Amino acid sequence: MTDGSVQQWQSQPAVPLLEEQRVGEILAAVPERGQWRYRPRRVGMVWRSRTFRVATVFTVLALCGLAILALVRDQTGTQGFLVGLGLAVLPVPLLLAAFRWLDRVDPGPWRNVLFAFAWGAFAAALVAILANSFATRWIATTTADPSNADTLGATVIAPVVEESAKAAAVLLIFLFRRREFNGIVDGIVIAGITASGFAFTENILYLGNAFGQDQQIGTSGVVSVTAATFFVRAVMSPFAHPLFTVLTGTGFGLAAASARHRRIRRILLPLLGLVLAMGMHSLWNGSAVFSPYGFYAVYAVFMVPAFGLVTWLAIWSRRRELRTLAAELPSYAAAGWLTPAEPLALSTMRARGLARDAARRRYTLAAQGSQEIPYGPGRAPGAMPGRAPGAMPGRAPGAMPGRAPGAMPGWAPGATSGAVPGPAPWPSAQATAQAQAMAKAHGKAAARTVAEYESFATSLASLRLQARRGTVGPDFAERELELLHHLWQRRKVAAPALTYAAQATGLLRPHRRPSPPYSGPFPPHTQYGTYLNGPTQGQGHGHNPGPGPGPGPGYNPYLLPQQPPH
Length: 566
Fold this sequence. Notes:
The chain is mainly α. The protein has helices at 3-11, 20-28, 50-88, 92-102, 110-143, 146-176, 184-217, 225-236, 240-256, 263-290, 294-328, 330-335, 342-346, 349-367, 429-469, 476-504.
């Protein structure tokens, strides 16, 4: 080391020593935050913001939508675009309703549905149009054979590009919404909705071009090219694109149901589904290219049986989800979290709907001040629910509305003959309408509470099945406690309704005649927001089902009642 370097080293300022007695003095000399010259870098913090992610996805899809709108309008013209749009939108409600019906057992959030449809209609369609046009022009320029380029583009390039673009939506939800992607049904629904959006945009393009051809040759009506195109694409094969992409979604669904340690299987199954989707798409496009009757042959021999097979697989998977509820939830009923009838009622869609309707009607009547029992055994033949035969609702037999039996209108009970009669306090029409609206609101809230209870119970059964398969993460205990928390909050409203539904549908056949589940005073649905804690849980309602777990000192969510809740 030279003398110059030694002098330079000695001239450097000394580093303050970290001594406990000087820590306060050193930190006190730091300027206030507003006078900082050096600020901490937030590496990756922007990407962790949910608002930023939502805004980014929305912006990308909006830009893709504007771009695809401009491209389709440029190829079809304004009039052709409007005609194609009006005709292409007709099969969309049918497709969306079919896939949402399939997803009724454990419905995914609407944000996933909207994202999948928008991705297929905008992003995937834009990638397909640009990539197919570029590849077709490149093949035509290289081979100097435009007809061969169109054939290769339709049978080779288009299936690969389009199915890959549609599969990207399934992959994104599989990666970033993993808790909402649990099996085959989820894969089929997301893939089918994505393909429905793609088919919607593609139909606009084809129908708009067909309308332009009709304008040039002067045809219209049933014999027009537009009518023929609409019949083939919207009537004969509205499920063509969804059928292709559903194979990819099935692969992702099987991967989601596989154990975490089977990584090769979790990678190969989606790839296999994607390859099958490309192959079926190529066969479908090639059937109309190589032979004039090939389309009908492939449609009858291959597409219809494949559609039937996929439909059977989807319905079987849906029923399997219901069987999972009947298999997994009895353990929670044995532990006291559920009543014995609830797993039976939750395992059928009919009982679920009946429970929601029962809760809606019961709480509507309760809000109106009625003492009726709208359902349950114990009625006389021909009698109205909860009334004596021939009695008016909520009155003694023969009594006038709002008066004691035999009382004259406007007279108070026990009044002398010299008293001046006063008008009875009849409610105004506005007050009656407000009371009815409030009663309906109470009923809707109760039905929504039962629906939420059914959703959380379904998620709990699915979570337990994932744990048995080894596909759940290390946060199983936390997720289970959270779901049990949500169920416990809503059980006072949902458990009686589900018990009644199990009895009404014949799923629960007790040896003795049961009492109506709603025979006693019914608690308000607004009280399910807190845990039932100790003897105060039923105050004001004449109902005290016993002590239960609560969030007090030493709270343990698995500290269950001595007896199953009523």
